[in-house]
Amino acid sequence: DPNTVKAIIEELNNKSSKVKQEAIKALGRIGNKAATVHLLKELKDKDDLTRNYAIDALKSLMKDASSIKRLQNLLNSRNIIERIEAIKLIGKLGDTTSLESLINSLNSNNSKVRYASYKAILKIVKQENLDCIFENLNSSEWQIRKWSAKILYKKLNKENEEEIIHHLLNLLEDKKSNVRRTAINLLSKIENSLILEHINKKLKNSSNWKMRRSCINLLSKINSQKTLRMLIEYIDDEDFFIQNWALKAIGKIEDFEHISLIIDLLNNKDERIKIAAIKLLAKVGDKRVISSLVELLGDTNWEVRKAAENALYEINPYWLASL
């Protein structure tokens, strides 16, 4: 009955949230499309429960292209709440025609909009339409590249693993550090020998400092005996950051079979490397390094002398008596 629907729609203006929520549920049960435009307005209601009821009601009503178009228009709303709820509803509807709009929303200035778009895309995108996500790894917007990488990781399976790994590895030389860090974190969670093979090759052959530093950073997160052997090769690298990260990573792995290589770094010209090596030796706690650390008490750099003194007391509080 149109009059009944009209009366229920009028209840959406009621100041009582409970009355409004019951009206929304009723409109959802009735399934009259005339209620669609009114229910869409409820997506910006200040009450969380009211918005959730509106989404549930709209799910059963929004079957035609014109309704979807109205919903897509809300993705440009200045009202953040309305925009987020529209994104959630699109995700629940599984509307593939909204993918491009959702991907653009990954570049929103609002973190909640970006996250809602990410969650909605995960619900919509399937193996057969992953190509649009691969393409956006080359987007001019770094936020889109970053979130696209996260989406691909979530869609990882045996069939697409190698392809996704290949694309994530390429992001290790992305111009934006946030994107590189995201790729590093995602790759560190994937167990595949291709990753270590690629890293080893890039470290030896690449002159791109972003790529090389990203590779060492990734190795430090993988944290295994295989990575230890690779890290040892780079503790005397010409790049300070690579030396430093390699040292820190070796310390995390806690395999001190190669202690002599660390002791050699106490003669490094760069005080930062010396101090990093001292701290690592302190963590090792091997009393055989005491004599090497004692020599550094005469270093010209105060920070090196202090680090050496602290390390000596950490290894053996009575080190003076052992001399």
Describe the structure.
With 323 residues, this protein is mostly helical. The chain has a domain at 256-323: Leucine-rich Repeat Variant, CATH 1.25.10. It has 20 helices and no strands. α10 (142-154) runs parallel beside α12. The radius of gyration is 29 Å and the shape is elongated. It starts with a helix and ends in an 8-residue tail after the last helix.
Give a brief description.
The protein is built from 20 helices and no strands.
CATH superfamily of the domain at 256-323: Leucine-rich Repeat Variant
Largest sheet: none
What is the percent of helical residues? 55-70%
N- to C-terminal distance: 99 Å
Which term fits the overall shape?
A: elongated
Give the beta-strand count: 0
Estimated radius of gyration: 29 Å
Order of helices and strands: HHHHHHHHHHHHHHHHHHHH
- CATH class of the domain at 256-323, please? Mainly Alpha
- Architecture of the domain at 256-323, according to CATH? Alpha Horseshoe
Tell me the strand percentage band: under 5%
- Assembly type of the chains comes to single chain
List the uncertain runs. none
Average pLDDT, all residues: 88
CATH overall fold name of the domain at 256-323: Leucine-rich Repeat Variant
User: Count of DSSP helices?
Assistant: 20
Helix/strand structural class: mainly alpha
